Automatic annotation (TrEMBL):
The keyword Metal-binding applies. Signal peptide: none annotated. Belongs to the methylmalonyl-CoA epimerase family. InterPro entries: Glyas_Bleomycin-R_OHBP_Dase (IPR029068), MeMalonyl-CoA_epimerase (IPR017515), MMCE/EMCE_epimerase (IPR051785), VOC_core (IPR037523). This is VOC family protein. CDD domains: MMCE.
Length: 139
């Protein structure tokens, strides 16, 4: 199955100063900014487009339970994940299973933009957090 880079997720401490950097220094365009309090997300999210490519800025809203807060505490701010768009997430999951690649249980969800996503287990991806996603019903 074909995979295409969808976006890069970047863990940040201050969403406003990060938005300012991406818009003013990198000439990005703010596509959306929202807060997700979904368990296992608990983050402010800013979607920025820079020259046709998407960046998701992720700032924790709960320093105790947010996975972004844990990431920043362990590794510092910076690239959190790389997301690849697949044609059909269900088929891609079957392929991963056949290849012995595990997913992070409990991460399958649909975000407010209709993107279905799941995270692969970093133990099987050389330590990189990889997201697979699709956009059902969208071309």
């Amino acid at each position: 199955m074909d995979k295409k880079l969808d976006h890069i997720g970047i863990a940040v401490r201050d969403i406003e100063s990060s938005i300012h950097f991406y818009m003013n220094v990198l000439s990005g365009k703010l596509i959306d900014c929202y807060t997700s309090e979904v368990i296992g997300v608990e983050s402010e999210v800013a979607i920025i487009e820079v020259n046709g490519e998407r960046i998701e800025l992720l700032a924790p809203t709960n320093n105790t339970t947010s996975p972004i807060a844990r990431f920043i505490k362990q590794k510092g701010k910076g690239v959190h994940h790389i997301a690849y768009r697949v044609e059909n997430l269900d088929q891609a999951l079957d392929e991963l299973k056949e290849q012995g690649i595990r997913i992070l249980e409990g991460t399958l969800r649909t975000n407010k933009h209709g993107r279905r996503l799941i995270y692969l287990n970093p133990a099987d991806t050389e330590g990189t957090i990889i997201e697979y996603c699709d956009y059902p019903g969208q071309s």
